[in-house]
Amino acid sequence: MWGNAMHDLTGFQRDLLYVIAGQDDPHGLAIKEELEDYYESEIHHGRLYPNLDALVDKGLVEKGELDRRTNYYALTQRGHRELEARREWEERYLDAEAAEVSL
């Protein structure tokens, strides 16, 4: 069964979780650049930071200060559990699709 919080997230917020989980140094600019590469378009601060704050508010991400101008973001234990539950949920359907294709 997948977690309670993931169904409330937008696709963009889920992508933020994946990027934060996959980066060694997840700070705002690095997250922004990774998403811009993926989406092949500019991600505005007015979109990025309110969504990061929403993930913090949901208890999926923690936010801290690297210095006066730079915040870091890290998944909480709950964030890790939610991503793992989402991965398991997706794999059920991907495995079923792969089985159908091989028939």
From TrEMBL:
Superkingdom: Archaea
Gene3D superfamilies: Winged helix-like DNA-binding domain superfamily/Winged helix DNA-binding domain (1.10.10.10)
Extent of the signal sequence: none
SUPFAM superfamilies documented for this protein: Winged helix' DNA-binding domain
Occurrences of domain Transcription regulator PadR N-terminal (ranges): 16-84
Pfam families recorded: PadR (PF03551)
Protein name per the record: PadR family transcriptional regulator
Species name: Natronoarchaeum mannanilyticum
